[in-house]
Every structure is written in C-alpha cells, then in structure tokens.
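In the design runs reported in the main text, the only information available to the sequence generator was the tokenized backbone. The following block is the verbatim input for one such run; it is reproduced so that readers can re-run the procedure and compare outputs position by position.
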C-alpha cells in the first residue's frame, strides 16, 4: 500500500503541559486524533459526515513511542498516513515533530474498526473503506 502523508500543525498549549512545562504524554493521542481528523478532511470528507452515514471508527489498538520532549508553546507538525487498510479496519501512523527544530517527538499508530452506528462490525467493507482505498491507489499513481 502506498503511504500517503497529510500534515497539520498546532502549538503545545499551557494546559497540555505538566508542572515542568513539558507536554504531558497523554496529549500525544489527542494530537494523533487531530492528525486523523485532518487526514480525512483533507481527503474530502469529515468524520462527522462519515458518522452521519452510519460509519464509526472506534480505536481498537493504540501505540506511541516517545522520542524527545515538547514544551509549552512549541509549534508542532503532525504527519499522518494510512499504513494498513483492510475490509474491516484501517491503521493510521502518526509522527509528531517539533516544527522549529525538526526533531521527532513521538511516533505511533492507531487501528480502527469500521463499525455501524449500532456497534456492529462492517465485515463487507463500507463506503469509507472504499474511499480510502481509492485515495491511496490514486495518490500512489501520481
């Protein structure tokens, strides 16, 4: 599968840091979520629109490896890509960088199942899975 990357930026807010001014480790999952959300938006449809169609993406696995610290007011860049896609799930890989230094702060992934609004696994694919598959094929050709 082609690895298409989308980027988004934000800053470490004061409330996202600990007493020492270092970004709290749990916030990285929030930034991964921001990356996923923007990945879909930049690909033409928001999570809200997919959910309105009855497609939910609960997280079924999450992993993060921390590489270097981020601090209050650091500008960060979140790189998000789809690295695995099947009929029933999608895996997003995220990398968070300190934009000023270029240092990799963290990398990880989240795996999501395609489920209906009543919580049932969509075993035969869905419009979101098909759209992501089309996007990755199209962008790999470019």
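Verbatim output:
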């Amino acid at each position: 599968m082609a690895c298409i990357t989308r980027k988004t930026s934000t800053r470490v807010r004061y409330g996202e840091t600990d007493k020492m001014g270092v970004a709290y480790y749990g916030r990285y999952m929030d930034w991964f979520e921001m990356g996923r959300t923007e990945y879909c938006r930049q690909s033409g449809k928001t999570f809200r629109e997919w959910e309105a169609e009855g497609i939910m993406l609960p997280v079924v696995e999450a992993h993060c490896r921390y590489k270097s610290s981020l601090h209050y007011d650091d500008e960060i860049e979140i790189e998000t890509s789809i690295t695995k896609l099947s009929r029933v799930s999608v895996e997003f890989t995220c990398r968070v960088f300190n934009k000023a230094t270029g240092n990799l702060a963290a990398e990880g992934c989240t795996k999501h199942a395609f489920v209906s609004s009543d919580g049932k696994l969509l075993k035969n694919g869905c419009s979101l899975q098909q759209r992501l598959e089309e996007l990755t094929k199209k962008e790999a050709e470019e």
